[in-house]
Every structure is written in structure tokens, then in C-alpha cells.
Amino acid sequence: MDTLFEILWRQHQIADIGDGIGLIAIDRVMLHERTGGVALKGLAAAGRNILAPAQAFAVMDHIVDTLPGRSDDTLMPTGKAFITETRAAAKAAGIRLFDLHDDRQGICHVISPEQGIVLPGATLVCPDSHTGTQGAFGALAWGIGSSEAEHALTTGTLRVRKPATMRVTVTGRLADGVGAKDLALHIIVLIGSQGAQDHVVEFAGEGITALDIEQRQTLCNMATEMSAFCAIIAPDDVSLSALKGRPFAPRDALWEQAVAHWRTLASHPDATFDREITIDAATVAPMISWGTSPQQSIPVTASIPPHNVGHPRETAANHSRSLAYMGLADGMAVAGEPIDAAFIGSCTNSRLSDLRRAAAIVKGRKVAKGVRAICVPGSKAVKLAAEQQGIAATLIEAGFEWREPGCSMCFFAGGESFGLRERVISTTNRNFESRQGPDTRTHIASPETVAASAIAGHIVDPRSFKDEVAP
Ligand SMILES: CC(C)[C@H](C(=O)O)[C@@H](O)C(=O)O
Ligand code: SF4
């Protein structure tokens, strides 16, 4: 009785190499300028061709400047070369490139579904750790290294160690004001940030099927922070309607044929998983991270617990180091901490519905004095839609900077950053030391919590912030 993962593995396994490793057929390769250009250059240097150029796609997202009027110049000292070399290599290789000024440009994991590149039942790889985001569509999508990307491009295959399976079933529905980001942090606190290592995580249950497709992507994105091999959600009406009519998705009779196949893709009711976890959606509250790992998170209404309480695999030394780095102490509430900046963006929470929920919170209000608030839409398509729908105007009116799409301040190594030791509340997925700038103190949370905190000037529960902030 197969799980969805085992069905997709069987459908793509060309050979069982032994030792738990399969030779897997790869349907799509996505590349970005930070790691993908390296793979393309490596192939060219070795004189190898790309087996199926029509199935490989490159985009500029990590290093590109997100200020209006941008060019190939970037804040990352060696950044320009990544951009120009990726462009040249993609052209020489004859693959599609969504370049800086292309209307389809954006963060790789955001644009792939927008363009219909990811499809249910397909295998998709990208030299980027958050590729599992795209498992929200029922694809087997996982992150690889640059040299694996070279191998996938030139052979259409990869050797893969077969991961174990884990199902996270969410019963009931999330409460109002609680979203997929909160659910993801709740799960990470429960199982730890290594909790899903070497596992494919299938998310299932009413709490998952009730999520819209963008929330599902947020959840699958955060599976990387559980150290999962990747995440997957069985395709259904929600995911299929999100892909219908997309530029690279099949059309007409081919679409119907594909749908008939995709409808068969689900774990058998009697399938057994190596691990099973069940979560009652009613127990999930808006979450906030207090430390330097996503597992160091708490409900926004709670106080920082002493080490080991609810935080598996956390040593006392780790716990103290995180607190010292963050300028916090045991037993403190994180709510109420003044912030220097608020960031809405990244492949976790930069889609239209994320921005819409943030805008609903800030509408008619102003970002607190002294807080730098920035919104970076995940793609040009998101940006244009947000502008057309008045979402951008609401955010700008409130005092948010409105930027061009890209990874931006999710990732200091791309060049853009917040200031020394600044306290930032952020919709991103990683709160590691110096992730968003030199010694920045990042708190990760949902778009609602980030938006509400930007208005309040301190970390706040989005469900009750209106009581604390005058309209
Ligand atoms: C630069 C890239 C390889 C990296 C990743 O793989 O995740 C980045 O996207 C990140 O989020 O840290
Ligand atoms: S938005 Fe952040 S997490 Fe996502 S791919 Fe870019 S750098 Fe990585």
C-alpha cells in the first residue's frame, strides 16, 4: 500500500542502484543566478550539453538589487558577475531565462507555479534548499547542489538516496488569524529543526485541504526548516485550478489527460508511513521565534521557556547563546519587544494573499515612528497584481517601502541587509545569526504578525494589536 511519495518514486525510478539509492528521472530543472550559473558554467567547461533545454529554466532572484530602477549592479561585491555570467551561460545553453526585466521574473519557487513549470506528479530539482515549497502542488520537488544540477541537466537523471516517509496530519481547521506560517513553526517546535531529516513529509488532513494553495506553499517551504528531504501535498481541486491555464502547463486535451492521471496521485488509505504525527489545528496560535533557529519559537502570547521545554535537541549552551545573541532572557515575553524593522517577503510569504492579509492589517494605519518597514513581492506578477488591486497603495500609504521582486533581505549574502544588531520581524523562513545583516536579530512570524508589529512598533499579537494601537 504505497504512499504518494512511493508512487512518484516508482514512476520515476529508472534503476535501483542498490544500497538504498535509486536512479531517478528528472522532469524539470530550475536554476538561479547564485548557484545555477555555477552549474551552467561547469557544464560548458566540461563541453557537455543539456539533454532537454526546454525543461530547464533559469531566473535572477538571489543577488538582484530590489530597489526601483535596478540594473545588473548589486550590493553584493561580486554580485554583478553572477548575474552577467548566468545570463551568458543560459543563452549559450539555449534554456529559458527569466531575466531582470522580464515580467515573469521573481523568486524561483514563486515563479515556477505561476508559470506552470511545476506540475503534480513531476520531479523538479533546483540548487536551492527551499525547492520543496513546490511540493504543495503534488510534485516531488527537492533541493540539490550545483554539481548535482549539472548531472541532472546533462543526463536527465539523478542518483538519490531514497528518503523515509513521514505524515503530518492536521485535524480540524486553523482558527481565524492563524495561518500556515504559524502551523509550520508549531510543527517545528514540536519535532525540532532536525525532526524530519531524511524524510519526505506528506501534509494531510482537513487542516491542510482547507488551506489555499499559497498557504500550502508556505507550509511546504518551512519543511526545509524541519530538515525534510522535501514536502508534498496530494493534488486536489485547489492545486489543479491554481495551475490551469498557466503558460507552461499542458492545455486542452493534454490538460484533461494530465488531470485524469493527477487525480490518481494520493497515498493509499492503508499506506503506512515510517513516522506519523497528528496535530489538532485548534491548538495552533500565532507564533514568533525568539532565538536563532526556527525551533526556538513560541506562541506570541507566551514567554521564553527554559531550555529543553518543548525544544527537542536543544542544549543548554545553545539556548543561552541564542538568548544572548537576541538580547533576550529566559521567562521574558517576546511580545512588547521594540523593533527596528519589519520585512514582508521571501519564498515563504511574498505571494499575493500574504500581501493582501498584511495590507488588511495596516489599512488606514501608519508604521510606527523609527521602524523601517519593507515589502518585497515574490514576483513581478505578484507586484503587478498587488498594484492593480490597491494592495501596494495600502502598504505604501502606511509607510512600507515597495520594492522590485527578489530574495532581498531574506538573505544577507545577496548583498541587501538590515543594520548592525537591528531587531527585525520578518516573514522569512530563517532566523539564523546574521541571516539578514551583520548580527541582526531576526524574529520570524506570519505576514499578519509582521504587519501588526510594524504598526505597533513592537512585537504584537495580530489578533489583539488594535487594542494597543490607536487607528
Ligand atoms: C543561495 C541558496 C543556495 C540558499 C539555499 O539553498 O537555501 C538560499 O536560497 C537560502 O535561503 O539560504
Ligand atoms: S527568498 Fe530566501 S529562502 Fe527563499 S530562495 Fe531566496 S534566499 Fe532562499
Automatic annotation (TrEMBL):
Its cofactor is [4Fe-4S] cluster. Residues 8-457 form the Aconitase/3-isopropylmalate dehydratase large subunit alpha/beta/alpha domain. GO terms for biological process: L-leucine biosynthetic process. NCBIfam families: PRK05478.1, PRK12466.1. It catalyses: (2R,3S)-3-isopropylmalate = (2S)-2-isopropylmalate. Pathway: Amino-acid biosynthesis; L-leucine biosynthesis; L-leucine from 3-methyl-2-oxobutanoate: step 2/4. Catalyzes the isomerization between 2-isopropylmalate and 3-isopropylmalate, via the formation of 2-isopropylmaleate. Heterodimer of LeuC and LeuD. It holds the Pfam family Aconitase. It comes from Sphingopyxis lindanitolerans. InterPro entries: Acnase/IPM_dHydase_lsu_aba_1/3, Acoase/IPM_deHydtase_lsu_aba, Aconitase_4Fe-4S_BS, Aconitase_4Fe-4S_dom, IPM_dehydratase_rel_enz. Keywords: 4Fe-4S, Amino-acid biosynthesis, Branched-chain amino acid biosynthesis, Iron, Iron-sulfur, Leucine biosynthesis, Lyase, Metal-binding. SUPFAM superfamilies: Aconitase iron-sulfur domain. It is an enzyme of class 4 (lyase). GO terms for molecular function: 3-isopropylmalate dehydratase activity; 4 iron, 4 sulfur cluster binding; metal ion binding. This is 3-isopropylmalate dehydratase. Its EC number is 4.2.1.33.
